[in-house]
Every structure is written in structure tokens, then in C-alpha cells.
Amino acid sequence: MSSPPNGNASGRSSQRERIIYGLQNVEDTARESLLHGGQVVTRKAKTLWTHFKDFIDNGNVVGLAVGLMLGAAFTSLVTSLVDDIISPPLGLAVGHASLDDLFVVIKDGKNASATYLTLDEAHNDGAVCIAYGRFIQMTFNFFIVAFALFAVIRVFQSFQQEEIIKSKVKCKYCRQKISKVATRCQFCTSWQDMPERNHVSSPPGPLVDAQGHMSD
Q1: Domain assignment of residue 133, yes or no
Q2: Would you say the C-alpha torsion 104, 108, 113, 114 has a positive or negative sign?
Q3: Any transmembrane segments, and where (predicted)?
Q4: Distance between CA atoms of residues 46 and 52, nearest Å
Q5: Do 116 and 38 share a structural domain?
Q6: Is residue 3 part of a domain?
Q7: Which structural domain range is residue 185 located in?
Q8: Which among 210, 200, 213 has a CA at the least distance from the CA of 171?
Q9: Please, what is the average pLDDT of the chain?
Q10: 86 CB-contact burial (10 Å; exposed 0-12 / middle 13-18 / buried 19+)
Q11: What is the pLDDT of residue 135?
């Protein structure tokens, strides 16, 4: 007499197959995700490398590096000029060794009866000060740097066909500032080199002045 089929064994086998199939699907999905992610990263890396090569080929890196080095050296030179050459005579004229020592105490520090000879002494005591001497020194720095840059640009411009500093003149009609080589005003659209063309009748419609206001 034959025995009945084992239903429990068949169920366990089917469940095991479903688990294996699910694990295979998870593995395939993970593999596809990694492959797609790798392709995206590779594509972005190639694009970034291409842009970097274009940036190098344009020569901007060399110019930027030279500009930064010259700027750092020039800043040190200007600082030394102001601190060591300009500030001592000015400070001596007002009775101080340095312009940094020109300040006004607006709130006393821990020792209210103390007399501060330098700004550092005031700060160390916790006093609140207006350091107008340092502001004067920074103002000297600014004007010296601005004038030096202007001189360098003027020298460099003498070797260039195109002007770096664009000269401007006032329009003959609306008095707005425009380029001195402009043939027509960008504000009132008047012709600068051919005034007779300004008398040509314009098409009907609202008029707009140089400030953009419409009139009837």
C-alpha cells in the first residue's frame, strides 16, 4: 500500500524557491543600480575633467596665479610703505609713535583710572575704543593701492589697441553718460555723429524719456 505524498515537504520546497527567486531579484536590482550609478559618476567625472582642461587651455590659471602672487607682494609693499614711511611722520606730528595709537575711549575697562598709551593696552583692559587712527591708516592703504592699480592699468593700456578704461562723454541731448565712440545714445537713441537723422519723424506711440518715463 503506497504512502500519501508529503505535503509539508512540497510546501517547504516551494517556499525555498520563492526566497531564492526574491534574493536573485534583489541581487539583480542592486547590480543594475550600482552599474547605473557608476555610469552617472563616470559621465560627471568626464564632464568635469573636460571643463577643467578647457579652463587650463584658456590660460586663465596662469594669469590668475600671477595676479595672486603679484597682489600679495604688492599688498606687503603698500603695507610697509604706510606703516614704515608714511605713518611715523604723521604720528610724530600728532604726538604718537604710530597712527594705530590714535583712539578715543568711549567706555572704560576694568581699571577705570588707567591711562592707555596704546590701543593694545586699552583692548587688554577691556575698554571700548574708536580707533580712528587705524581707519586713517587703512584709508591711506586704499588710496595708494587704487592709484598704483590705475598707474599699472594705464601703462598696460598703452601697449593695447583696445582701451581697458572706457572713456565716457555726455549725450548731446539727454546728457546721460555714454561711450565716447558711441554713434547712438543708448538712453534716448539720438544719433551722435549724424544729428540730421534725429529729425526724422518717429512712428506714432508713447514717447519714453531717458529715465524710462512715458509721456503722451
Answers
A1: yes
A2: negative
A3: 61-82, 135-156
A4: 10
A5: no
A6: no
A7: 168-216
A8: 210
A9: 75
A10: middle
A11: 92
CA 142 to CA 163: how far, in whole Å?
A: 24
- How many domains, the chain? 3
- Is the pLDDT higher at 98 or at 165? 98
Give a yes or no: residue 1 inside a domain.
no
Cβ atoms 189, 209 nearer than 8 A: no
Record the cell numbers describing residue 122, joined without a space. 586699552
d(CA 149, CA 55): 26
Torsion angle in degrees (nearest 10) through CA of 27, 33, 36, 37 = -130
Mean pLDDT of the 114-135 span: 88
Domain final residue pick, 111, 132, 157: 157
In a domain, 162, yes or no: no
Per-residue pLDDT, 205: 44
Q: Alpha-carbon distance 123 to 130, whole Å?
A: 11
Q: Mean pLDDT, to the nearest integer, of 179-186? A: 85
* CB half-sphere exposure, 30, CA atoms < 13 A: 6
Instruction: Give yes or no: residues 112 and 174 share one domain.
Output: no
- Give the mean model confidence (pLDDT) for residues 41-50: 77
pLDDT given for residue 59 in this prediction:
57
Is 2's pLDDT higher than 50? Answer: no
Taking Cα atoms as reference points, which of 164, 208, 153 lies closest to residue 186?
A: 208
